[in-house]
Structures are given as structure tokens and as C-alpha cells.
């Protein structure tokens, strides 16, 4: 392999990829058990991937969000969710929490995001949303580092 070829981390260490994929499935289960619907889960995955600039994960999770019933309007305005009334209080709390976990702002900003989230989310929901952020950030980093390609859709 030449140094100019992309090295796919998931292919180089398939056992590690299998482990992180297993964690992703467990996190999805925990989110569902906590009452985080598939729609919100995918919305969170999209927002985290937007922040990180992961084209591969955006392509995947925007598609999954649509399959889960998310509207194109809400996906279009997701980067500006604070500026709209299209999101519920629970969704806003979850979005603020995953943004905080993804961006790791200063302590005061993190505490504020966590306080808002704790007012709107149960402890189980808060934990599940936090795990969604932790694992999606890991998936983003694997895909960005690996340069996973976005395949053009066939018309």
C-alpha cells in the first residue's frame, strides 16, 4: 500500500471495528429503552456529524433520519435549530447536550447545557443521549480518518 492510498481503519483492524459497531448497537438499544425514538436518535447523529464535518456519516444518517420519518425541513434547518420553533423542548435539550459533548466548550457552557438537559430529560434519557454523542463522535473520527467515500446515488 502506498502512503497516498487511504487506509481504512475498519478494514485494517476488523476486530476493533466489530467492537465499536457492537457498542453502537448497544447504545441504540439503550436509547430506545430510555424512550429516545429512532427519529430523535438519527437527528442527533446528523447534528454531531454536521459539527464534525463527516460526509460519510451525514450521508448515512440523513438517509436513516428520513426513513425514521424525519422531515426534510427539519433536517435543512438543523444547524440553526435554536433559531426555529420546529423542535420540542426534549429535542432541544438533547441537541444542546450532544453539541456540548461534541464541541467540549468551557466548563460553564458545558454545565449550562447539562442543566438544561437535566430539566427536560430523565436520568436514563440523559445518559443514553450522552452515549449517543460519545459513540457517534467515535464513528465520525473513524470515517474521517479513513476517508470513507460517499457513493453517488443512482438516479
From TrEMBL:
Alphabetical list of Gene3D superfamilies matching this protein: AhpD-like
SUPFAM superfamilies registered for this protein in UniProt: AhpD-like
Domain of life, per lineage: Bacteria
Domain Carboxymuconolactone decarboxylase-like, residue spans: 31-99
Pfam families reported in the protein's UniProt record: CMD
Cited PANTHER family: CARBOXYMUCONOLACTONE DECARBOXYLASE-LIKE DOMAIN-CONTAINING PROTEIN (PTHR35446:SF2), SI:CH211-175M2.5 (PTHR35446)
Designated name of the protein: Carboxymuconolactone decarboxylase family protein
